[in-house]
Amino acid sequence: MVDRSMAVKAVAATFVSIAFVVVCLRVYCRLRVVKSFGWDDGLMVVAMLFYIMYSGSMIGGSLYGTGKLFEEISPENALMAMRYWWLCEIGYCFSSVFCKASVCVFLLRITVRRVHNWILYLVMFLTVATGLLFMFLMLLQCKPLSFFWTRVGPDPPAHGSLQSLQ
Question: How confident is the model at residue 129 (pLDDT cuts 50, 70, 90)?
Answer without folding.
Answer: very high
